[in-house]
Structures
1.
Amino acid sequence: MPTDRLSAALASGAALLPPEGVILLLNPVDPGALAALPRDRLRAVQPVRPDHDALAAAGFAVTPLVPDDRFTGAVVFLPRSRAAARMAVARAVRLAAGGPVVVDGQKTDGIDAMLRDLRTRGRVGEVLSKAHGKTFTLAPDPGADWTAWEAAGQPVAVGDGLLTAAGAFSADGPDPASVALASALPARLSGRVADLGAGWGYLSRAILTRPEVTELHLVEADHAVLDLARLGLAHDPRARFHWADATRFADAQGFDAVVTNPPFHRGRTTDPDLGRAFIRAAARLLRPSGALFLVANRHLPYEAALAEAFAEVADLDPGHRGPFKLIRASRPRPPARR
């Protein structure tokens, strides 16, 4: 959210918070947006590792898990998923135990629909509209039933023991790009393997069907999504789970293979630099004899990054003519000196 909208809402009375007690923050991203809040009374929940670490570095008390404590009030920053947003608001209502719940979100994140829904579930005060978004305070109706809203974000089975949930990437089932890469992976994949940006584990499941894989390290930035993978794959002793930013993940032993379907969005904005950062991370993590197996939408300009990071780059499936490019890159180059 813009850094001044919550401050303006507090100044205008659109955001009403209790004068004492601990305040719950759900899904805050920008530390600057919290400047007007009483920092010593805040408890932030942020499951995405880079955002979590930025809040911690700015001095906020932050955890990746929603606590089962009681708070005097809450602030919810809407996620993009409608079901995940409903779950967040319902949790805030429950944990705030009758206290005010401030809701903030962009139009592109569904704040207008949320406002309409919440007007049927309590009293909504002044609404501040600013910078393509809204902030308002809900006084929840004590008789409203929030059970279905909170259950909207619970895990859903997608087959083969795997689980997904609202708010996860590809929440309705396997992403077509991951399906294409899974079908193109070599049968003799072996040794130590890393799945960068593992999500809820679809590609990892495919990797673990290779008996010569001795260890599989799932690296995922979203703590909640990694927990889904853990539930779906924890029965396989070769699986290791890392809550980490894949672009900064470190491993002293090195990997024989890295598999990835890297993200290429920041919010709703296409950002190929994310995929390029995954490519550089893969080259850094691989042993000299290791290989990267990558899938990407055909329009994404990764060729220069691949050529810079690897001495050999080839089509993993030369006959594939779908919307994705399937890449095998080997002979990782040493990182360029800055």
2.
Amino acid sequence: MTIRPVNQTLNNLALAIVGISLTASSVVISSPVRALTLITDRSTLRANDRLDFSSLGKVFNPLAPSTTPDSFLPNTFSATSDNGLELNLNIPPSNDPASTPPFIFQTTSLPVGIPTNFADGDFLLFTGADLSFFPSPGNPGPLTIDLATPVTGAGTQIAVDDTPSFTAFLSAFDDGGNLLGSFSLPGTSSGALDNSALFLGVTSEEANIARLVYSSDASNRAIGINTVSISTRTIPEPSVLFGLLLIATSGISWFSSSRQDSNLKR
């Protein structure tokens, strides 16, 4: 009969788990980087930061333009998120000399604001349009958002002025200018104030999202976006979770086999 000391059994178990851990770690290191995930629901982004455009302190009222003449924005400007992240936004100048510069307005019922299909009370960044016509010729963008520090997720809702149905495009890049992925989805615009504007965002398993570019298939219509939601949360890769599970199950299996072997030798 052979009886193994308890300390020896535990030490062997620990050594086995360490060996399995090293194997799992090598699997994690060599695992490929997964592609971006398209997000169409703001809550799915798991945001922990945001940029609300009302924070810029400039709100233009298209219904009373003479009262807010200094509220237009330059085509390139910077803003700061709630948690202090710097965002740089760029909208190419319009080819139409009658088009306004970009501006922020609040969407709500007339005559207080302009109704859209964003949520009632939202503040929208609008790329600019010739407000003397209806439907209004507008600046189609694209609208580019650069994040000073790359993040794991970001997105916003988008609509196109005076265009009931459209296709929206989103491209995401890393801080080296490399394309991470491009997406397109159909969207709608209306004055329903029902928060039905298309949400278009992306997430990644690593903090590599540094630029978002929004546009649409409407070549002469302005686009509008609302609050930019941002996530800096790190999502564990499936290989990491698998490695931990492998360690636990293999360790338990080894210990059980060791116990059975010990009992047989008694």
